[in-house]
């Protein structure tokens, strides 16, 4: 019994470490990141599932030992009741043994719950893992809205959202992106820049984000912007005199400087 409890504590330590890995992996707005390679998406959940299963196996060993202890305690209690009825021992001794049995049964119920919780956790991890795979491979889907218009070409996507967006609202987008992907929004130009001066565009109330619109992060950002009604331009490649490379322009299209 003592050895099983020792092994159970050791496995619990392994699970705690794996849980730390799992929390870093994902879910924390509670969600699993959809970036990275397929191996990166599956590695952390696989480790957590293995640790959870080890924990469950140790719990089952402990449960069997607790079952045995309860059977022994029940048999002893039966003998003590007979001895008390015959006046051979004090009733206080019987009461103490009854309390021990209650405690043993409580421990067994706790172990049973740990086993059930392990099954639930493995099912959750597998569901989150499958969702992450789908998010990583899903094609770009632009949400249809009752307002605003979307036009696309091989080189560019343009959404004329109704929101009068300004730089003062950038924090909201940054918060969405960092909570979703665990790192800051990769802005390449916030407001006017030397590049825009050279190209002759008024970029004072717009932001450029260094993401390809067809990448996982680019798709997520575009879907978010359209969902919020925020206008944007998304370039898939450089366009002479317009865009120096793939990026997402947040805000209304820039006009020529007068």
Walk me through the structure.
- With 258 residues, the protein is of the alpha+beta class.
- It has two domains: 2-137; 149-256, no CATH class.
- It contains six helices and eight strands, in the order αααββαβαββαβββ.
- It has helices at 2-25, 38-85, 91-137, 170-181, 194-199, 216-228; strands at 149-152, 156-160, 187-190, 201-202, 207-209, 232-235, 247-250, 255-256.
- A hairpin with a 3-residue loop joins strand 1 and strand 2.
- Helix 1 (2-25) packs antiparallel against helix 2 (38-85), helix 2 packs antiparallel against helix 3 and helix 4 crosses helix 6 (216-228).
- The protein is rod-shaped and about 105 Å long.
What's a quick, concise take on this entry?
This protein is an alpha+beta fold. It contains 6 helices and 8 strands.
Taking the sheet with the most strands, its summary is:
6 strands, antiparallel
Distance between the amino and carboxyl termini: 84 Å
Residues in helix, %: 55-70%
Low-confidence stretches: 7-43, 141-146
List the helices and strands and how they pair.
Elements: H1 2-25, H2 38-85, H3 91-137, E1 149-152, E2 156-160, H4 170-181, E3 187-190, H5 194-199, E4 201-202, E5 207-209, H6 216-228, E6 232-235, E7 247-250, E8 255-256
Antiparallel strand pairs: 1-2, 2-6, 3-5, 4-8, 5-7, 6-7
Descriptive terms for the model:
2 domains; 58% helix; 6 helices; 11% strand; 8 strands; two-stranded antiparallel sheet; alpha+beta
């Amino acid at each position: 019994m003592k050895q099983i409890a020792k092994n159970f504590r050791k496995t619990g330590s392994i699970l705690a470490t794996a849980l730390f890995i799992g929390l870093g992996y994902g879910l924390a707005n509670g969600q699993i990141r959809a970036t990275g390679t397929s191996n990166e998406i599956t590695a952390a959940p696989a480790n957590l599932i293995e640790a959870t299963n080890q924990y469950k196996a140790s719990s089952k060993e402990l449960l069997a030992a607790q079952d045995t202890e309860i059977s022994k305690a029940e048999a002893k209690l039966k003998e003590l009741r007979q001895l008390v009825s015959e006046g051979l021992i004090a009733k206080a001794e019987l009461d103490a043994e009854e309390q021990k049995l209650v405690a043993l049964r409580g421990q067994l119920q706790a172990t049973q719950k740990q086993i059930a919780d392990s099954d639930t956790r493995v099912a959750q991890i597998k569901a989150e893992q499958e969702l992450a795979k789908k998010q990583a491979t899903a094609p770009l889907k632009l949400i249809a809205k009752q307002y605003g218009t979307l036009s696309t070409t091989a080189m560019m996507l343009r959404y004329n959202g109704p929101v009068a967006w300004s730089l003062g609202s950038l924090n909201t987008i940054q918060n969405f992106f960092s909570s979703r992907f665990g790192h800051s929004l990769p802005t390449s130009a916030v407001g006017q820049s030397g590049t825009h001066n050279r190209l002759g565009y008024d970029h004072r109330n717009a932001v450029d984000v260094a993401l390809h619109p067809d990448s996982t992060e680019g798709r997520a950002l575009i879907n978010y912007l359209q969902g919020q009604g925020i206008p944007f331009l998304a370039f898939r490649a450089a366009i002479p005199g317009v865009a120096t490379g793939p990026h997402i322009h947040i805000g209304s299209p820039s006009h020529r400087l007068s």
